[in-house]
Records
---
Amino acid sequence: MYKFQTKYGRKLELDLSLWKIDEGFGYCKIVDRSEDLLLLENDYRDRFWFREDLIHSNEIPIVNNRLVLPETLYEYWFLKDFRRESKEALDQLYEQHAALIFQNRDLVLSKAEYYLLKPSALKSGFAYSGGRSYSLGRLFESIESGNHIYYPEFKGYKKLYLVSMSASPLSGHVSKAVFWSDETHEFVKLNSTTTLPDGFGTAQGKAFIELMSGKEITMDREDKAMQNLIGEINAERK
């Protein structure tokens, strides 16, 4: 178990055996063969194809149908694609269910594997200085803290919480800003044609980046955790 304390003091535990893949050596067993490829299964029961000739050229011993892949080969043949596909699936699920998730913030904050979910859409920053990615949990904790960037009313919308933004670091010109309305349960997306409150792209933008700052453990199988979250939300609604 990995125990951690969030920015606002919440104590959570992450089961690393379920949500974190060892990035070191790949302990695998051979489960099938197809021509010059081997179907390998790691200790987490993930399966992937691997070229058999690389076993011989790298002098990797096979004992009782088991082998250990060096870190570079394990990364190239499994982890890289696995994580890319997992992130793509996560982003698709988030896009489909984001409004539902924002209406169930307490559930996200209750479990480490939900708290640490980091969809690609959750990224903010200033041009030329890179962006900062952050988790659902960090965003939701900030919203619940009472210190978040919040507008009671703006452009006809009410109870607006900032979700993400991008702006120029010099002029403060905002190219994009996304808010969540707790009144209508919808996302409000504003672009550069919208006149935002004074200081939004400078002081408040910097304050938001600071709220979202801090190190967080990187979790694997985010798509699976997101599926579990959506399933739990839907079960509670019945």
Note: The two ends are 32 Å apart (CA to CA).
---
Amino acid sequence: MGEFLSALLGPLIQLVELIVSCIPHFEIVRCNEAGVRYTRGEDAKRVGPGVRWYLPVIQDIETHHTCDQVLTVTEQTFETKDEKQVTVALVVVYAIVDVLRYEVDNLDADEGIGEAAAGGLRQLVAENTLEDLRRTTRHRALVVEKLQSELDRFGVEVRVARLTDCAVMGLAHGAVRIFGAETNVRFYQRD
């Protein structure tokens, strides 16, 4: 009897799911979000805040926050232009400004942004000497510019970037902290 009911109810449940998927649904895109509507066989389209109707059988909506988001790049050791080993950490504040590029052009934008920021940090350290890194006022816009060029393809804008820790490695007495958590943290903002 149980097998008979399973055989009967299985297709019936699938039929109900199909009927429900043909009924229009709505997605509420909040004021601090932007969305992308995918329609089968057509290009993706940006959708802004408001109530957005869609047919689940042929459409899908993905939303993302467009407000400021924080990305932390943990301590990593790189070599400077003058061949010194430096351990640095980074905090980046960014916002999604082109949701289509963020969602459509990248397989996993969240993970990719972290990897691209770490790559930009490595390149920034490799292109500068230890003394250049110490003179942080010279790099006020350089950190933001370098990260922006790395993150452009994700459709985001870098609002703030700061080196939260910087220490020279491989010295006779261990690491010497240039600046970090126990000192005044330096901010680098877009002018």
Note: The CA atoms of residues 73 and 115 lie 9 Å apart.
---
Amino acid sequence: MRLFSNLLKKINKQVVSIILACCTLFLMPEGVSQDNKLHSHIIEKILPQTSRVKEFQWQKEKYWLKKATGNKVCWLQRFGRELGSVIVPIAFLKPTPYGDKNPLEFEKERLLECEQLKVNCPRLIDYGTNWLVMADAGVSAEEYLKRLSRTQRFEFILKLISTIFDNQKKGFFHGRYYLRDMLVSSTGKIFVFDIEENPIHIMDIPNAKAREIFHFIVSVTTVLNDKELKQLGFWLNEHIDKETKKRLLTLAHYKKSLKFLNFFKHHLGRDTTRFLQTAFFIMDNIDIEEK
């Protein structure tokens, strides 16, 4: 009798495994084509060796595995953003909450959204409960810039900001376009990745646009010299719509506080220094007067 009972348990486990495998196969979102051999390779060889992000090769193709972690630094970063939004309560700088959802689960949904909106992003290849695998889409814009001459750099920055504007017209909002969150393919196409938030969930479209422009400027302040930043300011002032300008210029309401912080900027860390530099850049270069 005990032997029979154990046999039933074993059979039931096999049945459950088959059902789960079938669910995985049939519930795989459109746009994700699971290769069973690749999936096994990921589970057996790649995941055990990965703490967060890992590049790997499979049949002469390059892929990236991204794994969720319970890293306390991420929690501290979010806490810092929340605190900053209380000190300077500007709508477009409000942190995007993750809620109870796994950030990678959210990113998976956003990668599929990219494909639907015809926005260039790495193709989602496979995923599990706490990991996902994307096809390689090129080098980061941050790395690509290092290969360019000074004159080429500025033109490339304009290409990146134009891509951001094009994506906004398609109805796609990344949330925080830093240079490391944009990729350059071998053919020169610009891709976006690391899409773990959606500003539209907590703000209107002009604020979402302002948010992306602000973070992009933060990212390029260390790349461009003063003359080039002035050129960028002129270009942005010509191309940003009036409603988005209004949102960006809410920074002027806190000009006194920002000036006070600027006095101590060398003691406040790199991120705060870049934030202040971007805030003053916007107030000095963006206006809503009709040309």
Note: The CA atoms of residues 96 and 201 lie 8 Å apart.
